[in-house]
Every structure is written in C-alpha cells, then in structure tokens.
Description:
The protein is mainly alpha-helical. The chain has helices spanning about 15-40, 70-85, 85-110, 135-170, 175-205, 215-235, 240-250; strands at about 1-5, 45-50, 50-55, 55-60, 60-65, 260. It contains seven helices and six strands. The chain is globular and about 75 Å long.
Amino acid sequence: xxxxxxxxxxSGEPNYALRRQRVFLILSGIFLGTLAMLxxxxxxxxxxxxxxxxxxxxxxxxxxxxxxxxxxxxCTDLISELYGEKRASDMxxxxxxxxxxxxxxxxxxxxxxxxxxxxxxxxALALDAAGREPVFFEVxxxxxxxxxxxxxxxxxxxxxxxxxxxxxxRLTNGKHLWLRNNASTLVSQLVDTTAVILITHFYxxxxxxxxxxxxxxxxxxxxxxxxxxxLAIALLDTGPxxxxxxxxxxxxxxxxxxxxxxxxxxxxxxxx
Length: 272
C-alpha cells in the first residue's frame, strides 16, 4: 500500500517530507559509499578465517572486499520495504554508474603522466627490487579485476534481491518481513558470490590459486567461504532490520505495511 497524496505539515506536525528525504539520503549514501569502498579494497588482500570443528578443518578464505558487502543488501531491503521497488531499483542503477565512475578515475590516474621510473627500451613501468609495480598501479590492476567481476555480479544479484523481496512481499500481503529479507538475500548472495569468484578467476586471474592443486575444489572453497559468511550476516541482520523498520515507520509517518510511492518522496501524510 502506498501513500497517494501530499499535504503540507500543519503547525506542530513533524516534517515527514524532510525526514523521508534525510533517511533516503543516509541509506543510499551508506549503500553507495560501501559499494565504492569494497570495489577499491576488492581482492587486494585475502583473509584466512579457517577453523577446526571436532578435528575437521573447515576452510574459510575471504577477499577483504567481501567484509562490508552484506551492508549493501541490508540497505536495499530497508529501501525496498519503506520506499518501494522502483526506488530500490533506481539505486541499483546508480550503483552501476558509480562502478563505472570508479573505473574511469582508476584508468585516468594511470593514463596521466607521473614521476614513476620507466624502462627506457619498452616504456613500461620499472619494477622495484621485489619485482612489483608502483603501489597505485598494483591497486588499479586489482581493482579493475574486482570491479569487472563485481559489476556483472552486482547487477544480477541486486536486481535478484529487489525482485525476490517484492515477490515475497506481494505473496504474503506485506507480512513476514523475516521471510522476504532472508529468502531474497540468501538467493541473491549465492548468485553474487558464484559470479564474482568465477569472473575474478577466469577473467582477471586474480585469485590466489595453487597451480599444483586441482582448480575446481579451490574455486568451490572460495565460493563456499564467501557464501557462508554472507549467509551468517544475512541471518544476523534480521533482528536489526526489524528494529530499524519498527523505528523508521512512525518516524517517516508510515502505517504498518505502508510504503512511500516512488513519485511521492516528499509526502507529509500524518498517519495519526
């Protein structure tokens, strides 16, 4: 159910228009800022969180860029629930443009002349004593691989998340927030994790693969590690999601299961 009309706030009535704009800016800012950060961090470092259970070794290898990623799905679920499918989808498209913007400046920063030493015969960047390129170019190479993989996976996974969230919302008539939050996120995270790992390896060749061991067991370990991490975070964020919705609905002037129409962000409807 959406709010159809907008009326100016009366004396003493909260300014719901300002509140709705402010909350949307905060949620979309966290979403887009996290997205930019994780694409720069990306695959610059891998974390070994492997552990033992009853003598059985459980591998858990994560790219550092995975750590903040579940926050983006929490933001899209909050915006989907409060502001509707159209605005959540719009934010996903803005996220894609942000990815392209990041890639452009990474390219531009490397294309412009600098003070790095070059090989006089080939014109290529001179390597240091450890055989490594200057820091910026190492970061750029890794980020290019991460962003290329994440842009494809991002579009598929985020739209999958938004569509499934609203599919479950319509099916349950706006009830059972826990179901649409977890069902949409768990499927979309599996899509995202699988796509990122496969593209990062086969396109960017940037995973720390042991060439002396079989390839697919290693890729499956990366996929399973990332997905289990995201699965755990998705289950843990159900409580915070319920709490945020419970606090934000009255703050934004919304009744239960009500959302702000996509053309009516400035509505000042008072449910009281």
